[in-house]
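ok so i was messing around last nite and threw this chain in just to see what happens. nothing serious, just curious
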Amino acid sequence: MMRRTMMMLVAIVSAAPAALAQSADYDFAYVYPPQVARIAPLKVWVEADRAKLRAKTASDAAAFRRETRRDGSPFRKYDASKEWQVVADTPRFLSLSMSVYGYTGGAHGSTGSGGLLWDKRAGKRLDPKAVFVSVPALQAAVAKPWCAWLQRERVRRLGSASSEDDIFGKCPDVKELTVLLGSSNGKAFDRIGLIADQYVAGSYAEGPYEYTLPVTPAVLRVVKPEYRAAFMAR
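result:
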């Protein structure tokens, strides 16, 4: 099942074009919102991504089927899904979140996340981190609230915070996180979503850690000048 990503950030919920496929070897689903379908070059890119993911799923599942036939081990059907959702649709940008799920015959499936910006003015795709002067600069602007929240959330989930000696004891840097840009008013970005996927900040059982923080003056200062008008501090 597709995981709903950063629901605090998602501003627009609507029916989405979906591609569903089933075979003896795998189940496949790929969903994207109508806003993407209305942008021709973005739709072309998403459709190509969908075709690539389905082809890889089919190829990998078929290879696993052949392997189990050779060694007599049980075959477990593959599963792959990917979903794009609108986080914000502002005059300058369409901000999207991505959640992905995959099962390849092991003990459990795996999940992941991602983000994408469509610059309407320039007509191109951007990584959300690319609108900042640098990842280290963004790290400096958000590390304190992010790490403080993560510490509290670990205590809430686990009963105590992981020690510094534990494999997941430290606070992951922004470079390891998914960054999403959201808007409360549909006019400018005024909040940021940070997602630490499974095994980034905690074990599989803990699930992802997802945090939303406001665009502060400190964050606004590290936005590249050419994109600053698309943001507002709260």
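not much to say yet. Strands lie at 18-22, 26-31, 78-89, 93-103, 110-119, 124-126, 178-182, 191-196, 209-214.
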